[in-house]
Amino acid sequence: MKNIRVRFAPSPTGPLHIGNLRTALFNYLFAKKKKGSFIIRFEDTDKERYIKASEKHILNSLKWCGIQADEGPDNGNYGPYRQSKRKHIYKKYVKYLLKKNYAYYAFESKDELKQIRTEYKDKGKLFIYNYSTRKNLKNSFNNCYYNQIKKKQTKYIIRLNVPVSKTIKVYDLLRGNISINSNVIDDKVLVKSDGNVTYHLANVIDDHLMKITHVIKGEEWISSFPILHVLYYYFNWKMPKFIHLPLILNSFGKGKLSKRNYNKLNIPIFPLKWKDPIKLKTILGYRELGYFPDALLNMLALFGWNPGCEQEIFSLKELIATFSLKDINFSSARFDKQKIDWINHRHLQSRSIDELTRLVKLCLNEQKIYFNNDKTIKQIILRIRSQCTFVYQIIEKAIYFFKKPTLKKNYIKKQIINIKITKKILFLIIEWFNNYDKNNLKLLRLFLAKLAFKKNIKIHYFLKLLRLSLVGKLVGLEILFIITKLKTQDIIKRICNVILLLN
Ligand code: GLU
What we know:
Shape: elongated
Bound molecules: glutamic acid
Strand order of the largest sheet: 3-4-7
Radius of gyration: 33 Å
Number of domains: 4
Number of helices: 20
Largest sheet: 3 strands, antiparallel
Low-confidence stretches: none
CATH architecture of the largest domain: 3-Layer(aba) Sandwich
Structural class: mainly alpha
CATH topology of the largest domain: Rossmann fold
């Protein structure tokens, strides 16, 4: 069988959106499953919309997700992998199309076209630059412009000469046969007035020269499918197989998942944070919000792909092993924030304890907390992780192990029965910690029981005081476990802080 070659071909006009990441993922999964090649190609023909930082964002996002390209801007035998560096290649193909009359020169400026469109609209008609209008417009079909073409005095563009009254049949692996009458297609611009080729032409030439076998892309591209078909036909090239993936819709209402969803619904839409180079506003991504990259991929895989089994949690390796193009769904997937959080929660539960320890330490270091007792961290993780969706929540829930709590006077005062008696009790407890081994829990329990009897106060109250002192609030893991994990001097200091607060 022919070596499978697929490509992810983003236009660097902004940050990588998770919809496009899903496209990259499906290409990657298919390539890896089939032991083929996954290629990255930057489609940077649109100079007006080009954003330099975008390329970096796309590459870093893929890297963070562990999606590694076999060929791309940095390596590969079919390069260059940036369309801006392939201009010399396209020239020959443009010449061929012109020679064969498959393409033609046209001379309208943008403003002129705008005016024509408005005139049509005023008459209640839609303007299409094609067989029905081209003979009356400024182009090589029209003799009076012949000289201009010859001398090339005027700025020109080159358009595709779409065949007249033909039924164009395309085949999509998901949708099957799609037929369209060529008369409704416009003569797409192939070369712009600045000499740069446009998306359609570059896309077809590159896919052919890079020996792409399967084109997997978003549904938003389906309208250009017949145009690509005409170009393949004119070049007499075999078309790769095409599959257009269903859209990812936002969780509420209608429409694609977009930046507005982030602003309004707090749904992240980029894998990594993006700093808008013009507005200088930063939008956080999945990484910054604490999601695991493989949880994000797991979620994206389930948008449009049905594994055909009960399993919902997949590692990247498992996705590769299970993935198949024939299990791609036809209907659009709706974004579900609760589901992604649940998936992240599940991934956190299945992470190895060593990795979680490393991640917790990293998170602590970011807060300038350097805690090196791995054994303690592991014990904490084992007790806390089932309540957590994100690594940072482990730290939030266990922060009192790593730094002294901030005490809230009013809150503490509300929890105690009598200041004088409470202070006395706290002094007695300090005395005990000064004289005995804090890890001798049996002895500690006995001491508290005796104290309870002597003061005629329930032992529960002493445990509450210890919790308020060590944690700052009435939450957290078992108090005796906390005591074994804190240093005696820190326990005493924290109890002293409560006494000071009560003064
Ligand atoms: N360059 C297109 C984009 O920005 C990709 C189209 C394709 O994959 O053919 O998404």
